[in-house]
């Protein structure tokens, strides 16, 4: 179906950047630089400088950007790791894959971890917290870091959706032992396939993650541990370096669009909006997703679809309710309520103001009927 306002628009971005992209691909291919070459190093430097950490290590996905730091930090069987259920399942699965037990808690109104619940779940086995900066909004990192220090816990930030987001002027991915970012195509900064990167100030952790991403190979001839193949492709890194130049502009545009949505949908009864860009000066939200809490949510989804607006209902079933995951012992009232209400509107820098206004008009029309 051809939407008037598609949920994402990769072809538009490609058309806008076609010449530069083709030149970049040509340059890399003519050099023959495909695995862990200079473009990966350059991208790692770009991200470390941008986030404000000493190190950044390019990986094959945002999932591994959470999994490898957990492994490198020695999290495993017998350990408990606290995170939320209201997230993409990867935030939880990395804990299970590391051999530890996920302990899920509720989120608060802005969809980030409810720090008041931390005290209730901590045990002697708790080793780490994975706060998820969902939708491009940071968690309350001051409270989380204070709690973690008090209880001697590791913090691995799930910053998959939050490159460029800040809390109290400090970047997502620079608070904890490590931050894991996704470079999946639809992210604030996305490549042409899968990709991820971790940021950290910890030299030992950085070295370990570098080993783990490349089968423990310290040099071409020395293998020091078992690992995985989790390298960021050099070709993807070259594309990311190109796109990185536009990141500040793209983030601003996302914030502009959020402002237009918030103004246009203000006091639309039936739709609860995310906080506006300048609502609380502690937060610099990059609006990876613009998510409403909508009454009659499924009706809104269908109405928008009929009117040519593509939206996304990402988690109609909370993660802890999926039978196959074995997490049904958790009871998380707010998360369960959100699953019935959340809907993501189109949000990407290439959207025109007219398209945004059109979406606003459709949402208002639905609630006035
Ligand atoms: C919150 C969150 N965590 C982790 C991930 C995993 O990232 P990837 O898909 O790059 O493996 C994602 C990806 O969408 C995510 O949104």
Describe the structure.
By secondary structure, this protein is of the alpha/beta class. Helix content is 38%, strand content 14%. Strands 1-9-8-5-4-2-3 form a 7-stranded mixed sheet, sandwiched between helices. A 3-stranded antiparallel sheet has the order 7-6-11, with no helix packed on it. Helix 6 links the parallel strand 4 and strand 5. Helix 1 crosses helix 8, helix 2 crosses helix 8 and helix 3 packs across helix 7. The longest helix is centred in the N-terminal third of the chain and has 22 residues. The two termini are 25 Å apart. The model has no long low-confidence stretch (mean pLDDT 97). Bound molecules: pyridoxal-5'-phosphate. Pyridoxal-5'-phosphate binds next to helix 4.
Shape: globular
> Major beta sheet, specifics?
7 strands, mixed
Helix fraction bin: 25-40%
Please give the number of β-strands: 13
Strand residue percentage: 5-15%
The N- and C-terminal alpha carbons lie at a distance of 25 Å
Q: Low-confidence stretches at least 5 residues in length (pLDDT < 50)?
A: none
Radius of gyration: 21 Å
Q: How are the SSEs placed, and which strands pair?
A:
Elements: H1 10-31, H2 38-51, E1 55-59, H3 64-72, E2 80-84, H4 90-97, E3 101-105, H5 118-121, E4 126-129, H6 141-151, E5 154-158, E6 166-167, E7 170-171, E8 178-182, E9 196-200, H7 203-212, H8 234-244, H9 247-265, E10 271-272, E11 283-284, E12 290-294, H10 297-306, H11 333-339, E13 342-345, H12 353-368
Helix pairs in contact: 1-8, 2-8, 3-4, 3-7, 9-12
């Amino acid at each position: 179906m051809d939407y008037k306002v598609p949920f994402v628009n990769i072809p538009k971005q490609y058309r806008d950047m076609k010449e530069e992209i083709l030149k970049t691909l040509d340059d890399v291919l003519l050099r023959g630089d495909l695995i862990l070459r200079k473009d990966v190093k350059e991208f790692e430097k770009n991200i470390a400088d941008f986030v404000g950490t000493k190190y950044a290590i390019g990986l094959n996905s945002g999932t591994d950007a959470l999994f490898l730091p957990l492994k490198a930090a020695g999290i495993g069987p017998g350990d408990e790791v606290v995170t939320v259920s209201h997230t993409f399942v990867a935030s939880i699965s990395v804990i299970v894959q590391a051999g530890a037990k996920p302990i899920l808690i509720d989120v608060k109104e802005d969809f980030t971890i409810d720090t008041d619940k931390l005290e209730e779940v901590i045990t002697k086995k708790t080793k780490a917290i994975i706060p998820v900066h969902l939708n491009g909004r940071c968690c309350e990192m001051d409270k989380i870091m204070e709690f973690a220090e008090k209880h001697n816990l590791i913090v691995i930030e799930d910053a998959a959706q939050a490159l460029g987001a800040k809390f109290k002027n400090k970047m997502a991915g620079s608070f904890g032992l490590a931050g894991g970012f996704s470079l999946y195509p639809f992210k604030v900064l996305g490549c042409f396939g899968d990709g991820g990167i971790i940021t950290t100030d910890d030299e030992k952790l950085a070295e370990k993650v570098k080993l783990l991403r490349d089968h423990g190979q310290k040099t071409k001839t020395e293998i020091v541990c078992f690992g995985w193949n989790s390298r960021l492709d050099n070709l993807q890194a070259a594309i990311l370096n190109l796109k990185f130049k536009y990141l500040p502009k793209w983030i601003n545009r996302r914030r502009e669009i959020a402002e237009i949505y918030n103004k246009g949908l203000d006091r639309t009864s039936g739709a609860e909006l995310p906080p506006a860009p300048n609502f609380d000066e502690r937060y610099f939200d990059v609006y990876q997703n613009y998510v409403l809490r909508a009454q009659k949510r499924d009706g809104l989804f269908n109405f928008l679809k009929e009117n040519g607006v593509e939206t996304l209902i990402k988690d109609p079933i909370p993660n802890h309710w999926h039978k196959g995951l074995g997490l049904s012992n958790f009871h998380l009232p707010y998360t369960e309520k959100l699953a019935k209400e959340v809907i993501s509107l189109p949000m990407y820098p290439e959207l025109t103001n007219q398209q945004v206004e059109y979406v606003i008009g459709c949402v208002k029309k639905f609630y006035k009927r």
